[in-house]
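Subject: Protein record for review, amino acid sequence with backbone structure tokens
Why sent: The fold of this protein is of interest and is recorded here as tokens.
Enclosed: The protein record, placed directly beneath this head.
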Amino acid sequence: MHHVEPIVLLLMLVAALVIVANKFAIPYPVLLVLGGLGLSFVPLLPVIRLDPDVVFFLFLPPLLYPAALFTSWRDFRRNLRAILFLAVGLVLLTMTVVAWVAHSFIVGLPWAAAFALGAIVSPPDAVAVEAILKRLRVPVRIEAVLGGESLVNDATALVAYQFAVAAMVAGHFSLGEASVRFLFVGFGGVGLGLAVAYCIRWVQRHLNDPPVQITISLLTPFAAYLLAEKAHVSGVLATVTAGVYLGWHSTALPARTRLQALAFWEMIAFLLNGFIFVVIGLQLPELLRALHSEPFTRLVGYALLVSATVVLARIVWVFPGTYLPRWLSRHWRERDPIPPWRQMVLVAWAGMRGVVSLAAAFALPLVLNNGQPFPGRNYILFLTFSVILTTLVFQGLTLPLLIKGLRIEDDGAVDREEREARLQANEAAVEFIEQRALEQHMPEDVMVRVRAEYCDRIAQLEACAKGSDNPGGEISTPLYQQLQQGALGIERRTIIALRNSHQINDQALRRIQRDLDLAEARLTGD
């Protein structure tokens, strides 16, 4: 079998499993991991190993970049304190607690190797969190905190991981040197990411060619990540910083480029996410073979112990971390009141691990400087996989049930802001039309036609804001949508009939279809 055939088969499996996941309302990363796990036990299939270099340099940048690109900088900045509290404080706590548990219960696992395991399993995965939360309607602040945490925490964990591995391999460790290095890697990654993003923005401003601009957009995360790694700073933070900066300035891009880039990145993210989650599930048989001499019950016990430690550490950190600073600081309490306890429960439970953890585990060196095997490497690989499987499947499946049980609902903030912005924009457009008509003495019929379109949009937005039958946040009333969509359907069937009867060609059909598609997207707000 050629190397391309397994990839094609896996992508076909991804498509099939996502269809099933959507049908049964299951988060698709969960079903993909389980599908890969089941597939791994099918005999005669080629072994697909997770190459850490491929993950870190080929998969991670384009997975992090679109998540950062579509992040709200306003919400990220507003919740920066909570994000850093989780992305730095919680990661370091989880690493320390897991290291203590692993060193205490796993015979022969030295402290440095235990800290390496703790660093590997400490960060929730940006891909897993984003893929699961996007299908759930949660308050915008929760989405901002969890999304921001998952973008930043990889940097904290990977830096700590590098120090733990270096201490294990070389046999020494300096806390002072590590602290300075940590700050250098973090701030250096942010600075380099800004520099790369500024250069890319300058190039993009001088172009109006969507294929070229999208190609540059595809290369941007690789440029930021690889340059940062060459400079020995955080490639994760460089990629995230570049994405957030360019996402903020994406308004300057031509409309055609933005439309095509959005569809492009959605497809890239879906394919990479699907492929990588299936590959995660395929790794178990090889890990079990490496530990074939160990009793299976002991391995399961270790897996449950470490997984429970990871989950409990997050729960223990979230609640005191939310209450204590506000109890101790009146200014903090007034500026940022305590969020509802239900939302804190959701944050405490949303700690799914993913591909970065497994790639870091596979990247562990095989031998130390003295030629001895890296102690406990097979244990670390197996326990990392177990934590990913436990958190992704168990927490991923129970998260929707938890949200429903706690009655956590979308607060509608984004919908309200969208309607208000659309209303102000349309009112400004009407004002412009009337002013231009007076200044340039435009024909009355032209002014009336254009003004009527905007006035109709304003009427729909006002009716939608006042109505009580609009829980989904649409930008037009349900009856208006129903009638408009019916009319658009008639238009589509008419032009298709004209094409089928050879009265128009396919190029004319596609032009009209594009207008109808944009009209439908504007109608529903999608």
Q: What stands out?
A: The chain has three domains: 4-411, 412-476, 478-526. Residues 478-526 form one domain. DSSP finds 22 helices and no strands in the chain. The mean pLDDT is 84.
